[in-house]
Amino acid sequence: MPARVFRPYDIRGLVDSEMTDEFMQLLGRAVATESLERGTGSMLVGRDYRPSSEHLTAALIIGLRSSGCNVIDLGQVPTPVLYFASQLAGNISGAVVTASHHPIEYNGLKLVFAGQSATPLTIAKLRQRLQHGQFTSGDGSYHEQSVLTDYLDEIEQNIRLTRPLKIVVDGGFATPALVAPLLYQALGCEVIALRCDLNDAQAGVLIPNPAKIDSLQLLADQVLANGADLGLGFGGDGDRLGVIDSSGQMITTDRVLMVLATHLLSQLPGSDVLFDVKCSSRLAEIIHHHGGRPVMWKSGHAFLKEKRQELNAPLAGEFNGHIMFADRWNGFDDAFYAGARLLEILTQDSRPSNAVFADFPIGIATPELILPVATGEEQEIMAMVLEAKGRLSGVRVTTIDGLRIDSEQGWGLVRASNTEPALSFRFEADDQVTLNKLQDLFRRLMKVVAPKLTMPF
């Protein structure tokens, strides 16, 4: 049982060597035992389109049932559909076999217990159960069920577009293709479906990542070629959103959140709006300007959902594309619903989408810059970085997740990735000179704690 498969808020590893059928059966037993101890004897199960997902799901179900959990098999569904089903059925538990945006060689498990995504503590408890063989026994039932129509109907009743839009939706040859074209057509959009044929040879093999511009390039090209109002792309399991405006430009999630927060705060003034440490400093300014309370928090969808629930905030989002609405929705990260809310706002403005987003500029900013390191080394390096922060002066230091340094003209961040053995960097500044100075500051800091590393900037 390799320790590295237990991530802060999910379980993920290499197919065949780490994520084996035997391991998935044992994991199913641990998950079922945890669910039963929380008073929930039923488990929703779904899976993505990876070739390995079908047999790994079958193994998981064997384990769940052998520990006495009743299984409701939703089949191939995006993660937000399972989240929706868990709420619809009364906050029961759920498991999705997926590795999100990671390559096809990987697979894993995302979990919901009693209406809440798994936290680091939950994952640690599952690992302990596996290590000690602490499982219940029983003979759980099994049946199949589809909730896709209910999901689509619920969003259709929730969203009102005031004018038709032409949009391109990129299903990525993955489970989002099951939802996106149907949903946005039902809302009244003219939909151009891109990579939505799940009989294509690339289905389940091409893994989309909406946080990466190269993953969205074909979508951007099709928005321009078709004169579309907007392009929407999705993560491999549908919980992350990517946006292309009418000029073919990628709109980062922090800018999308500016639009969403401005509209939400006009209806719910004074609300908390959460965002992660990788987001632009301009986002906090926009939230404050429109009467909200900006709350910066740790990166990671589970951390944001947990904090959002604690504060009862109506909106939260992460730079990598997770967006959670809780004013008119269930508080989970749902890219399809977030896309629909964005469309609702855009239809209330007669201008093209690129003009709407132009009202919310950011500074000169880098994408997230990833520096791979040896497994476990990322935490050791960050411990030394935090020890060295006392050398800094004349700046605002934030350490809720890594080290973020803010000045009047810009900011920089280094943190340990939650999803891979790597360090993550990001920078934003009012001008190139300030950006260069910030990056020089971080180079000097990293040279002190890890002189052998070559920075990705």
TrEMBL record:
Residues 4-135, 150-248, 253-357 form the Alpha-D-phosphohexomutase alpha/beta/alpha domain. It comes from the Bacteria. Its EC number is 5.4.2.8. Residues 391-443 form the Alpha-D-phosphohexomutase C-terminal domain. One of its GO terms (biological process) is carbohydrate metabolic process. Keywords: Isomerase, Magnesium, Metal-binding, Phosphoprotein. Pathway: Nucleotide-sugar biosynthesis; GDP-alpha-D-mannose biosynthesis; alpha-D-mannose 1-phosphate from D-fructose 6-phosphate: step 2/2. Its cofactor is Mg(2+). It catalyses: alpha-D-mannose 1-phosphate = D-mannose 6-phosphate. GO terms for molecular function: metal ion binding; phosphomannomutase activity. Transmembrane segments: none annotated. Belongs to the phosphohexose mutase family. This is phosphomannomutase. It comes from Thiospirillum jenense.
